[in-house]
Amino acid sequence: MWVVKVARRWSLGMIALVVASLFLAACGPLGGTGGQPRSAPRPAPHERTSTPRVIVDKVCVDATLSSNPSFSRDVMAELEGVVLRWAPSPPAGLPTGAVPARPGLEFYVHQVTSDSFSTTQPSPEVTVPATPALPAPPGALDPNLATAEVTWASEEARWRKAVGVAHAAALAGVAMLRNFKLDDKVGNFSAISGCLAALADEGPQDPEVRMVLASDLEENEPAVKANYGGARIIIDQNCPMSIPAAACQQLARSWTARLERQGAGSVVVVPANTAAGPLTSFLGGE
Q1: Does residue 12 form part of some domain?
Q2: Confidence class of residue 186 from pLDDT cuts 50, 70 and 90?
Q3: What is the CATH number of the domain that holds 146?
């Protein structure tokens, strides 16, 4: 009888030990869940790291003499406006609501010449950094108003500094574009596809890239093949009065087919006299 009682007590002790072990395995360390260690506190919004989104625009401008001289100058003026509007100056007063983040901008410009594909071609590259979002200021009924106001003031100062840096970069980019000398000297030929191919090779190459070809589409240099990697392309077509409308339309169809064969995601042709609105929307949008 004594032996039986000892065995019974030993069995109950073992059962208790097993139950306790299973309980600890399921709950994990004290303060944890599911066997995982306690996670670190979430960082404050300004401490969170993420890769800022960057928009990539690439523009090929044809200033050769077969085009109207004012055409390329108008295009360059429009590009200046796109860059300037990308990063406005910080507001004078405090924002009254939330401000969304603004992506960065990479802006590449090449021009059509006899040797457009050459690496020695001067080509402006404008970079405008992204700016972070800013939450709305705390309301008067915020239960922790004093602390929230201090936190928001710090975030607003950090946001204002970033906006100022982006605006300064945009101003520098505008100056670069304004000082870019278009090569329209007599004797230049039009290596249009070389200009586009050089742009395709420069910077990122993916379906998010936006490209513009501002040209009369009359190429008189050997064609250069490229891979446009799904980029969206707008052709701002300048049709000189010396060329019949039907011939201009045929050039547009031919270039559209060529660019699509070489990997363009989409190709849209707009006449130069109506291109200002579409180009600004295309290059200036997020």
Answers
A1: no
A2: low
A3: 3.40.50
Instruction: Read off the pLDDT band of 240 (50, 70, 90).
Output: confident
Domain that holds residue 122: 51-284
Task: State the burial class of residue 3 (Cβ atoms within 10 Å of its Cβ: 0-12, 13-18, 19+).
Answer: exposed
**Banded pLDDT at 273 (limits 50, 70, 90):** confident
Q: How many CB atoms lie within 10 A of CB 149?
A: 13
Q: How many domains does the chain have?
A: 1
In a domain, 100, yes or no: yes
Residue 16 lies in a domain: no
**What is the C-alpha separation between 194 and 182, in angstroms, rounded?**
16
